[in-house]
């Protein structure tokens, strides 16, 4: 009844174009809600399964990790856990401080028990694209020091081949003076197109936490040997890191729109 009355009022007040627009934005909002919920269930699940008392925990970067840190803070408080948190970015450090968690660093904690991090895309072999938010270098260092790396993501990141879902390419962090020769070398070696990532609230390029630029490599061949690509690009002078994570991740949790979590392990 109430709905019918409201709907009739809406009809009286608005023209049909406005109504269609309202319903579209309502449905966009509910889609956004489920994406956030999907991130949250994946993050909570990973923290509940992998964080233990006295562990050294690698804190990834991005919007999904925000939920992991939230859950960690809850568990630290309610279960009186002792956890040392090593950040993978400025953002991760801020999250640790905001939640009054114990901040660690690789200098004092060179071995990390478990790192939980997001990803831009995860293929069927658990090769990852990371760095959509510009944080790949410290993420890869911390992951490489971790006994386990666990990925948390919503269902849109789950793909068969890299490039199926994530269309912004593979990020490459480079020393600023070398961005043009690196761009040319990567294109001549593997094809595709490369864009220097531009900042949004600043004129000019994105500058990473480490003072470098980011090239986004829009590859066209989805069947490349990613391990070879990773090591070949890494060898180009001026390349600091590439956002390809090959054989680094032991488990991925994908939150689903219905609220369940799909788990994936590397193929044996
Ligand atoms: O540079 C950013 C990181 O690699 C993130 O972990 C990745 O972009 C996924 O971020 P989000 O959880 O926001 O999708």
From TrEMBL:
The keyword Isomerase applies. The keyword Isomerase applies. Pathway: Carbohydrate degradation; pentose phosphate pathway; D-ribose 5-phosphate from D-ribulose 5-phosphate (non-oxidative stage): step 1/1. Its EC number is 5.3.1.6. Keywords: Isomerase. Pfam families: Rib_5-P_isom_A (PF06026). It comes from the Eukaryota. Signal peptide: none annotated. CDD domains: RPI_A. InterPro entries: NagB/RpiA_transferase-like (IPR037171), Ribose5P_isomerase_typA_subgr (IPR020672), Ribose5P_isomerase_type_A (IPR004788). Belongs to the ribose 5-phosphate isomerase family. HAMAP family: Rib_5P_isom_A. This is ribose-5-phosphate isomerase. It comes from Loxostege sticticalis (Beet webworm moth).
